[in-house]
Structures are given as C-alpha cells and as structure tokens.
Design a protein that fits this description.
With 728 residues, the protein is mainly beta. 9% of the residues lie in helices and 42% in strands.
Length: 728
C-alpha cells in the first residue's frame, strides 16, 4: 500500500493540583492549577480532596494555559462541604500520524477528528512465544520504539505526564481513508519516554509488561497482638508475601498467621476447602465446631485453619485453592422473573453484542424514580464479605446510577458508551441480600450483561448461569487457572481483556486435567503463567488488539491461515535452537507430577506416619517417562526432554508425556522468513500460534509446502519489512 498512513493513539495520565475553594456539588466549577497541565476539552477527570473527604467526577469544558484555569462540568459527587486542596487527574489521548489525516463530519465512527502529523518513523515491534531460540520454557514479551517530531516543543508540555503502562495503539490505512479503513497493527503500552533535541522517543511494550509485577503485592504486616490479628509477628512472617494456592496442592506449608490463636493460613482469600491438615506428617481431623487437640476447623472465606492444640512441628495441608462461584440465577438474562424489576423498568432481550462477543446483552430502561431498578435476592452467610459485579454501558452519552448489595447501601457508578465491569464488595449483615442497579434520581437507558455475586473480596472469573446456581468450585484446569490469576492479580478485566476463544479451546483440549500451584515466595504473574503453560506444553501471549490469549503447542495440521512461497519471501533461513539437544529430536520425555510442596523425612515426621506416606513426603515429584529408542539409534546426541510440572494426576502426566514425545521425537525445523510488510498484511497478518505454510522448490524439501506454527513476528514498518519465525 504505497499511500499508506500510520496512526497512533497514545494515552497519558495528567495530574494537576489546586488550592481553589470549591463547594461539593454538580454543575460548573473552575479550578486554578498550580502548574500547567494540558487538560483537553471532553476529557473525563476525577477531582479528589487530598484527605479523601470528597470527590468530583467531571468533564473538562475548557483549559486556559495562560492562567491555568480548568473549567469543569461536575456530573456526580461524593462527600459534601467546601474545600481548597484538590487533585485533578485523568487520561488524555493523543492522535498522531505519519502525515496529514482527518475524518469528515459524516464519518460513521469518528466524525470530525484530526491527527497531528508528528510521527517521524513508525515503530518497529516484535513478539515471540518463547525466549532465546527455544521451543518451550519462558515466554517472551515484545516491544518497539516510535520517533516523533518535537521541533515545536509540543511534547515538552507533557514532561510531568505519566506515560508508562498507558495504552498505545498503532493503525495502518489509506491516506484519506475513513476510520474504519484502518487496520489495528499493535496494541500495547508505553514503557518510557525520552526527549532528544527535536525528537521525542516513545518506547513500547506489549501488554506482557503488565505481568512483570509481583503476583502477590501484599505482605504480612507482623502486627498481631496476642490472639488478635492474622498478620504474624516480627519474629515469624512479617514482610513475607501472603501465600496463594490455586488448584489442588499437596502438603503445602501453612503460614503461622497467629500462633497464639493457633490460626494457620492456606491462601490469601476465599478457598474451596482445606481437605487435610498434618502436624509433622500426622493427620488431624476436620471438625465444624470448636476443635480439640488433634483437630482443625477451616475458614473458607479467609483461607485459614484453626488448630485445637499447639503443634508438635511443621503444619502442612492438602488444599483445594481459590474459590469460584456465582450465586445469581439467569446471570445474563435480566428479563427472567428471577430478577425483580421495579415499576417503570423495562428490559429488551439480547439486543447488542455483549462482552462475550455474542448478541447476549440486554437493554434496560430505568425511570427517574429514586431507587427504581432491578435486583435479585440471594442467600448469603451473615458477617462475610461478598462481591457483586456486572458489565454495564450506557446506550448513549453518560449516566450515573447506584449499585448496592444490601438494601441500605449504595455506591454511585458512572457509565458511558464503553463496556466496563463494575464491582462492589460489602460485608453483609443478614442471611439474604438483593444486589442490584438502581436510579439515583435520573432516568437511564443502559445495556447490561453478566451479573455475579460471590463470596470474598474480589470479582473472579465471570460465570454464566441459567436456572441453577453455579456451585462453588476451585480453579484446577489450566485455562481456568490462568484466567483466575489474570483477572484477580492484574488489571485485566475478564471478557473485555481476554481472548476467550483461545481460553475455551485450551479448556476443551485439557478437559478434566488438573494442576496445583502454591506460592509462598516472591514471584511475578509472568513466572506463574510460565509454570502453568510449561506444565501442558503451552504458551501465552497478547493478540494484536491487546487481548490475553493462550495456546498449546501442537503439530501443524496442514490447514494454514496463510501460505508463502519464494515469490513473497526475500530471504529464508534455517535456524539453530538452544533447547535440549540443540533442535535434534528428543528420544525421551520425563515429566514430574503431583508436587509435594514440603519435602519431609526422618525425625521431621511423627512416629505414627505410615511407610507409604513417608515415601510420598520424601520425594518432591512423582515421575513418568516415555521413550522412543529408535530416535537414539538414529541421533546418538539426542537429549531427553525433562520438565517438572504442576500436573496433579499420573494419568494426565502420562498422557502429556506421550503427546510431547510424539511432538518432539521427529524432525522439527525452525525457519525464518523475511517478507515485505505489504505481502505480510495481504496474507492476513498471521500472529503467534497461527499455522502458515512455506513452499520453495529451492529450499530443503519444501517443494510441496511445509506446514509451520508461527512463534515469532518482527515488524519493521519504517523499512517495510516483516520477519516471521516459524516451527514445524
């Protein structure tokens, strides 16, 4: 496309402070900022009183740089009174291009917008399924750099802005084209910004950067006072990450939350159950009442057990970890009688595409009567925290509604024309509550989808229900475990930020397979994902549109999404590999399964522990092995493929070992193809995990075409070149 133009949307975060005296209320207000902050008309901002006494949610009407006056239209508030110490903050989006581009007033998607022609060089970026020329192992995030013109010092005004971790999107389309004519090439985040004379450099990362953070950011405070508190003491666990447990985990060391009260932690949050507890390897009995010596009682809401007597040694447990449930009936069908609708509330069934990608979202019109709305009664346990979540957006414009769990509580939520998942957590006082959405005195037309109410303090995997409740369970299947960690430990939102088709495909491929992951040390989300994916021969990545996706590495099927040949390819190379055997076929696969998370033997165990139990506790893993002797005869330097996994059952481990041997005991090439960007995009721009085919009469035995799985992409748009790395 010789007349192609590149567009980039760059988000940045602005923060301004003001000592203007403002009385809390809706309508027009004006702040004088302490420093110049380039707020833009139309931006949505939150204005906080610095002590937290009040908050204003507003839209920017105007900003005058000369005297730093920020005019706002306040649409909703919390708190009351008059204050003179404010902090205004919000996200501004810059639209820049490689040339002049604007839309007409009749553009059906983005009428009347104009891009600033500031891109000097469109970015190059790359993405790989694995690191360092390996097939398997750690994932590899991608990134790039974009250079912009700063000759007029435009970007200098944003020196105080927050660039890092903010959304970045790159598009390509025809000069003079409409917004819908542009193709999304990359969706990621900015990593950092640099000013170099008349150039502004923006360094980019794909969204994997958001996973290079601790999976557990909370640590034990060590603040217990006698039997009060569950934070340990300075002498035991203060400063350690709070433990996490996913799936079914064996013999995990419990955290001494409060030794004075004999409370020991299995997971930071709600769990399905603590199935067994051991003291020096000797089993204790589970009870529901007050435990006596040799007994324990579980608290599934907070993920701990209470012992009935002082322990003799190390306390370990078999734990069914992070809990999943949805106590609503008909969670996406608000027309159903299970949902109570007040007078004047109307529901239209399945009118637009919902967050799950299907026509399953419903339109709900709510009258202006204060408190009018829709809700559903559910049974709960008094004194426990519950989290209510629901996906909402306005039909047009913006609107403020109330969200509540108990009848006497409410929280204002602000909707616009973008799907969001709204959440609210409350500790309930009775045995029945009626979570719902209702008017705060103004009429509203909204779309709604996917309501959920669950025990605990966080919204987890969205679960769609019909006429029966989704019973409480725990996350053991690989795709479910990855999804749970993504939506509870990162900023990703279920359905909105996940490629659910890939998660569903992986769930089907690993149906019935269970894992167990216990975390009691510092670990990033990315490391946890690598452990899970490595256990099933899979990998994780982000799609072009920035959604989290997962795949299992499988042999090519012969049904390519794109085909290349010598007429398309400028250069082709057969690459060496850095994994076991340097790319030679593997003659053996050895997998570890059912990890024992606390190895114990000898005098670490009570005398009553059986010989079978001692044998289990002595070894960290059970082992399965599959062999292909013929491979070793043909390739004397062939190496074995050895992986210690999170797999729970011997059957699953044996099946995975057999699958891996079939996959890796035959010749597999790693090739690199260089094509033009135009040819690559014309072929559909295949991405990680997609199958392609390369046909070449002058390269190895590729004359009939060789099917390959794409595991790496490097796009250099300034040079008009794309390099594809494929395996198969």
């Amino acid at each position: 496309m010789s007349n192609a133009i590149y567009l980039a949307e760059i988000d940045l975060y602005l923060v301004g402070t003001s000592t203007s005296g403002i009385t809390v209320g809706t309508g027009p207000v004006e702040l004088v900022l302490a420093t110049d902050q380039p707020f833009e008309p139309g931006m949505r901002v939150s204005v906080h009183e610095v002590t937290g006494a009040a908050r204003l949610d507003a839209v920017v009407v105007a900003y005058v740089q000369t005297d730093r006056r920020l005019a706002l239209d306040v649409q909703s508030v919390s708190g009351d009174g008059t204050y003179s110490d404010w902090r205004a903050e919000g996200t501004r989006t810059l639209l820049v291009a490689t040339g002049r581009w604007r839309t007409g007033p009749d553009d059906p998607d983005r009428p009347g917008i104009e891009a600033m022609p500031l891109i000097v060089e469109p970015p190059s970026f790359q993405a790989f399924a694995f690191r360092d020329g390996r097939i398997g192992g750690r994932s590899a995030g991608g990134g790039g750099e974009m250079i912009l013109n700063n000759a007029d010092r435009f970007f200098d005004r944003f020196a105080e802005a927050g660039w890092d971790g903010r959304r970045f999107r790159l598009f390509r389309g025809p000069a003079g084209g409409r917004w819908r004519d542009f193709v999304l090439l990359f969706s990621g985040t900015a990593a950092q910004a640099e000013w170099r004379d008349a150039r502004f450099h923006l360094f980019l990362r794909d969204r994997q950067a958001q996973f290079e953070v601790p999976i557990q950011r909370e640590t034990y405070a060590g603040t217990n006072s006698g039997p009060t508190g569950n934070e340990g003491t300075p002498q035991d666990i203060r400063g350690r990450p709070k433990i996490l447990c996913y799936g079914l985990c064996h013999n995990v060391p419990l955290a001494p939350l409060n030794t004075a009260a004999l409370r020991y932690g299995a997971h930071s949050g709600s769990i399905f159950s603590v199935d067994e507890v051991y003291d020096r390897g000797a089993a204790l009995s589970k009870v529901t009442g007050t435990p006596a010596a040799g007994q324990y009682r579980e608290n599934v809401t907070e993920g701990f057990v209470t012992l009935g007597g002082s322990p003799a040694g190390t306390i370990t447990a078999k734990v069914s970890g992070e809990r999943l449930e949805n106590l609503f009936l008909w969670s996406e069908q608000f027309m159903n009688p299970a949902w109570t609708k007040d007078e004047g509330v109307t529901v239209e069934n399945d009118v637009i595409i919902g967050p799950n990608g299907g026509y399953t979202a419903e339109r709900i019109d709510i009258p202006a009567d204060d408190g009018a709305g829709f809700r559903q009664s559910v049974s709960v346990t008094a004194g426990q925290p519950y989290t209510f979540s629901i996906y909402l957006r306005s039909v047009i414009g913006s609107v403020t509604l109330g969200m509540g769990i108990e009848a006497a509580t409410e929280e204002a939520i602000h909707l616009d024309e973008v799907w969001r998942r709204y959440t609210l957590t409350e500790t309930v006082s009775g045995s029945s509550v009626s979570p719902g959405i209702f008017s705060l005195g103004e009429a509203a037309a909204i779309y709604a989808w996917g309501a959920q109410i669950e025990l605990g303090g966080v919204a987890k995997n969205g679960i769609i229900t019909g006429g029966t409740l989704h019973p409480s369970s725990y996350t053991a299947q690989p795709a479910d475990m990855l999804r749970t960690i993504a939506v509870t430990r990162s900023e990703l939102v279920d359905f909105l930020d996940l490629d659910h088709a890939s998660f569903q495909t992986l769930n089907e491929a690993t149906s019935g397979m269970g894992l167990g992951l216990f975390i009691d040390r510092e670990m990033t989300i990315a490391e946890a994902f690598d452990l899970i994916c490595g256990s099933i021969g899979g990998f994780w990545y982000f799609t072009r549109d920035g959604k989290l996706a997962v795949r299992r590495l499988e042999a090519p099927t012969g049904n390519p999404a794109a085909t290349f040949d010598r007429t398309h390819v400028q250069d082709v190379r057969l690459l060496s590999r850095n994994d076991e055997g340097q790319g030679l076929p593997n003659h053996r696969v050895v997998l570890g399964w059912r990890r024992n998370w606390t190895v114990q033997e000898g005098d670490q165990l009570a005398g009553s522990v059986s010989a079978d139990r001692r044998a289990f506790l002595k070894e960290e893993y059970r082992i399965v092995q599959r062999d292909a002797p013929a491979v070793k005869r043909k390739h004397p330097l062939s190496a074995e493929l050895r992986r210690m996994t999170l797999l729970e059952s011997e059957t699953d481990a044996d099946g995975e070992a057999e699958r891996q041997l079939a996959l890796m005991s035959v010749r597999r090439d790693l090739v690199e193809l260089e094509v033009t960007v135009d040819e690559y995009l014309l072929a559909g721009a295949p991405w990680l995990g997609d199958e392609i085919s390369y046909r070449d009469e002058c390269f190895l035995d590729y004359a009939a075409g060789r099917p390959l799985i794409l595991i790496g992409v490097t796009e250099s748009h300034a040079q008009g070149r794309a390099i594809l790395q494929a395996w198969g």
